[in-house]
Amino acid sequence: MGVDYRGRFAPSPTGPLHAGSLVAALASWLDARAHQGRWLVRIEDVDTPRCVPGSDRAILEQLAQCGLVPDEPPVYQSQRGTLYQNALDSLTTRGLAYPCACTRQDIARALAASGQARERHGELVYPGTCRGGLHGRTARAWRLDTRADSPVTWHDRRLGPQSQDVVHEVGDFVLKRADGLWAYQLAVVVDDAAQDITDIVRGEDLADNTARQILLQRALGLPLPRYLHTPLVLGANGEKLSKQNGAQALDTARPLALLQQAGAVLGLQADMAAATPQDWLQQAVPLWATRLKISR
Ligand code: GLU
């Protein structure tokens, strides 16, 4: 596949890497190397209130200590607002996205009035109130009209066939938030296309976003990447590892041990006598390729 393959690791700089995020970084790096492709890092700093200053540099340093060095300079989403605005304008002009004046309370009221109380991960399923126009109300957010092409089916290289009825399960989702910030869904889709990403390898907790991202790719006429969602590292409470449930900062003084732990989560359990992170990585590439049946 050669240089046609472009993969990426796209951390949000909300703190340093932990054992879970290292698994996603390692898997995306291994997949890129197994395909003799390129590996990029993109700092997803659109949700500025959640970003921790300096953690972008900390993440890049931790990655480098583990031998994971991007092939191109990292890009920062906070500097790419024009690209996102252009994409939103193109969707709005074509009637695929629309401004929405509803507060959370308005949405709850509309759902109650229609006898539905649909909620998903604590988010109300937007019933499409503003699809027909604002009727004099002031725009707060912008949403994608998800009525086209539902359900969305796609293939995950590890999880197999997937399907989601976006319009009913998620609703018209937000592209630009009421606080003026760009939503992850729009930024990630625009950037993956702008950076010619062919393969997305990321944690399984993000798999649920894929159908929404595919709807956006179709609406914007963008190529569809391949997807592979990696196993999660669970915290003491059985949930995805996060700072809240005990994720420790990685001890990058021992990068080899960190790589071995992350590799074990990915099923790379062979006895690898490696002296340095670079040695370990070189030995892990063919194991990954064999595991995923990647032919060179
Ligand atoms: N920035 C997202 C996160 O850290 C990952 C985005 C992606 O890989 O698509 O959860």
Descriptive notes:
The model has no long low-confidence stretch (mean pLDDT 93). The longest helix is centred in the N-terminal third of the chain and has 16 residues, at 19-34. With 296 residues, the chain is α/β, with parallel strands linked by helices. The strands form four sheets. The chain has a five-stranded parallel β-sheet with strand order 3-2-1-11-12. Helix 1 (19-34) crosses helix 8 and helix 8 (255-265) runs parallel beside helix 9. It has helices spanning 19-34, 55-65, 81-93, 104-113, 166-169, 184-194, 210-220, 255-265, 277-291, and strands at 6-9, 38-43, 75-76, 97-100, 119-120, 123-124, 141-144, 152-156, 160-164, 174-176, 199-203, 226-230. The structure holds glutamic acid. Glutamic acid is lined by residues 10-12, 44, 188, 202, 206.
Short description:
The chain has 296 residues and is an alpha/beta fold. 34% of the residues lie in helices and 16% in strands. The longest helix has 16 residues, at 19-34.
- How can the largest sheet be summarized? 5 strands, parallel
Lateral arrangement of strands in the main beta sheet: 3-2-1-11-12
pLDDT < 50 stretches: none
Q: Identify the bound ligands.
A: glutamic acid
User: Counting H and I runs of at least 4 residues, what is the number of helices?
Assistant: 9
Mean pLDDT: 93
Assembly state? single chain
Return the structural class. alpha/beta
Rg calc: 20 Å
CATH class category label of the largest domain: Alpha Beta
CA-based shape? elongated
CATH fold node name of the largest domain: Rossmann fold
Task: Let me know the number of strands.
Answer: 12
The number of domains is 2
